[in-house]
Design brief:
Blueprint (H helix, E strand, L loop, with lengths): L1 H15 L3 E15 L2 E5 L2 E5 L5 E13 L4 E16 L6 E19 L2 E19 L2 E4 H10 L2 E3 L2 E13 L3 E10 L4 E3 L1 H5 L3 E4 L2 E11 L1
Antiparallel strand pairs: 1-4, 1-14, 2-3, 2-13, 4-5, 5-6, 6-7, 7-8, 7-10, 9-12, 10-11, 11-14
Length: 215
Amino acid sequence: MKKIIVILAALSIALSANAQVKFGVKAGLNVSQLGPGATEAGGEKHEIESSGMLIGFHAGGFVNFSFSPVIGLQPEVVFSLQGEKEEGEEGDLKTKLGYINVPILLDIKPVPNFSILVGPQVGINVTKKMSREGISISGSDLDDVLEEGGMKINTLDIAAVLGVQYTLFDHLTIGARYNFGINPALGLTKEAKDAGLSISGGGNRVIQVSVGWAF
């Protein structure tokens, strides 16, 4: 995490010399799920459907570099609570995964005050929790339970981001975006992989709606 902050700080200094710079904060709502995937063992493939939707939130900060009236760059550091919800007879099983996400987004401005944001995002999982009907397990205890079944929560999350953002009064921002996870949110332990198991798909899918304030 310290390395990411240092890199962003160095990038900000280098870019600010030739660009109009705005700093900002943002927060908003997440609607998330895990996408479809598949597991394979012994040549047999088992398809996994998309999960149910989970409501979460996100909050963080951004820096916007405007190189011209039509193009810019917007790196961000955002905490995002996302995951999935599965309905069951014994109650809903909720998996809540907290990430520190760092998107680096190209800011395309077809008209004044309106931006199309697109680019990659790297996330680091920092919190994890599963709960059902008042019973919950989190952190290393959850890791131990998942490991018994040959599973783990992947620390690194890679996503592609596409969104829009509108700026009012030169300060208030309103935005919406879709984060498409490229790698699986849940992975396999080394022992499971050595036993011939594999997993694909099942990446984070997150719709975000946010408001922010640029300085």
